[in-house]
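Quick one: co-fold with S-adenosylmethionine.
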Amino acid sequence: MHNSYIDLVANFGIGGAHPGGFSLTQSILEDENIQPRESVLDIGCGTGQTAAFLAQRFKCQVTAVDNHSVMLKKARKRFESSDSSILVIEGDAQSLNLMDNSFDLIIAESVISFTNISKTLNELSRVLKSGGRMILIEMTAEQSLPLEVQNKVCSLYGINEILNEQEWKSKLQQAGFSQIEIIDTPSGLIQTDITDINQSENINMDLYDVWEEHNHFITQNHDYIGFRAFRCQLL
Ligand SMILES: C[S@@+](CC[C@H](N)C(=O)[O-])C[C@H]1O[C@@H](n2cnc3c(N)ncnc32)[C@H](O)[C@@H]1O
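Sure, here it is.
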């Protein structure tokens, strides 16, 4: 389904388009002890910054999945110019054409909120190996949201619901994940520096308005909307 916020990220070609940005990704992954034999899924890979980093830094077997054609085109272009081989798949996180028990590690950076959350978590639980681990970076409600904030966050980001920390934990548990930890990060949703950009030609002017709205929203609503980085396992 068409989502203006995702179109904005795709057309501007913003890498690290998640709370905390690429520097948070790097610091989390450096603590993961990722081995070359391990298979890693970057679900909702966007333009592929994290997938490329995983392959180059840890020499692991990376699969990058997204359902947006502009994101995938930019990700493929990025991977062509690196010497790592990354499997790129166009697919829907809610229904993956991937075998059960395929991955040692899954990373989802600001992706699951844009989908039917329970459906996607069940699907990720299916493709993760038993004993595998998963890292999520996702938006959270920091307190009960006034209706207008709730409506705005849903319309601006094209999402159906925004969960608080406890609701994320419950949904993760329902999908079979355990040992759910919150990775220690600053939880405020602030605009992170954009250091990785690959703009399309002829960007629709409406997307500049979405960019303005997004920046306005996060500066106005940091008491209500934050994020968490979760780490969990499938036993
Ligand atoms: C905010 S962007 C984050 C991109 C990337 N993870 C990053 O951190 O830069 C959300 C990404 O999730 C992808 N996405 C959203 N819904 C999806 C779905 N149902 N299946 C696969 N990818 C999806 C979008 O196309 C987009 O690339």
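If it helps, The longest helix spans residues 205-220.
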